Amino acid sequence: MPTKFNQTAGAAICVALLLAGAGASAAKADSFLAGLHHHPTLASTIPDNGDLNPYAVVVAPVTSGKVRKGDVLVDNFNNVSNLQGTGGTIVDYDPSSKTTTLFAKLPQNLPQCPGGIGLSTAMAMLSSGWIIVGSTPSTDGTTATKGAGCLLVFDSNGNLATVWSGGQINGPWGNMAVIDKGDRATLFVSMSGFDVPGPDKLDPATKAPVVVRKATVLRIQLAVPASGPPKVTGQTVVASGFGQQADKDVFLIGPTGLALIGDTLYVSDAIDNRIVAIDNAATRTSSAGAGVKITEGGMLQRPLALIATPEGHLLTCNARNGQVVEIDPASGRQIAAQWIDSNQAQSPPGSGDLFGLAMAPDGQGFYYVEDDVNMLAKATP
């Protein structure tokens, strides 16, 4: 998503009405969001080379190399010219010292990665210290020049160790869900790049960019040796048939959020504005298609990242406004919505500003990024 600064007349009126409500929140007493009242900004996510548009947010599970347990890793999707699919940096925010350092930087043109580098919201850190991040690249900032991309593996000192590409990897897009057993691990990554055309190819009926229903969720099984980077031991498409669509403003719309609760994988289906469930995600041997609908519409406004709360609820951030929505996956009930970005420079307020989410280690809040100001922020009690 490019940084936006367009002012609209209706936005100010909308924000005034929203803030006139009780705390600008629809939270109920049984919700996780009801306990969160503060949203401090913590640090800029712009490194020295000027990369913009923070996407992935990951909290380090261990201390390893340059990374301390509890650090927050954030990657950038745009370069200094604000072209989408061209960012190649990961920054590391240390909450204890409140300092931000550059963790890794890649050139835009990397031969091992088809199409080059544009770091997406697909990122995870394993307990073994390896950091894995997806690239969904472009050369002109649109899907017209999108490459298939890859998954990049860094050691905990920010050195590129290996690259995975080809086959079922095409446009690694959504935040990863992870099962980490130390010497082995399982990653779930949404792939939203298959046969996506440029944004100028329109559907004759809707006059909007065509929707291609080929996005998948790929399960990648890893062996993690005592020395050397993880090795892929298996790949299985566990979900398929999700909508994906080029967009001039936000580059690509596709399944973005992935969260595991038990053996059920929840997926935010942005095109169809819903959350779906994939059962037996860790063990199934075939695709569940587009899964089973848990909830749709309502407070959802194109759901993006997805995380689980300590109570087993789901949080997702909206693409079309600055709200986070809380969902009980057992009942499908949308419990609450809270404004975490009410920037009136967008209409509706905060539209296009949110993307990555990560639960704080103490379970008392969550980290998020605001793309409009290129900042890391935190929702706290």
List the helices and strands and how they pair.
Elements: H1 9-20, E1 41-44, E2 52-59, E3 72-78, E4 89-94, E5 99-105, E6 119-125, E7 131-135, E8 150-154, E9 160-164, E10 177-180, E11 184-191, E12 211-223, E13 231-247, E14 251-253, E15 258-261, E16 264-269, E17 274-278, E18 292-296, E19 303-308, E20 314-318, E21 323-328, E22 333-339, E23 354-359, E24 366-370, E25 375-379
Antiparallel strand pairs: 1-25, 2-3, 3-4, 4-5, 6-7, 7-8, 8-9, 10-11, 11-12, 12-13, 13-14, 15-16, 16-17, 17-18, 19-20, 20-21, 21-22, 23-24, 24-25
Structure notes:
This protein has one helix and 25 strands. A hairpin with a 5-residue loop joins strand 19 (303-308) and strand 20 (314-318). Residues 1-29 have low confidence and may be disordered. It has one domain (9-379): TolB, C-terminal domain (Neuraminidase, 6 Propeller). Helix content is 3%, strand content 42%. The protein has one helix spanning 9-20; strands at residues 41-44, 52-59, 72-78, 89-94, 99-105, 119-125, 131-135, 150-154, 160-164, 177-180, 184-191, 211-223, 231-247, 251-253, 258-261, 264-269, 274-278, 292-296, 303-308, 314-318, 323-328, 333-339, 354-359, 366-370, 375-379. With 381 residues, it is mainly beta.
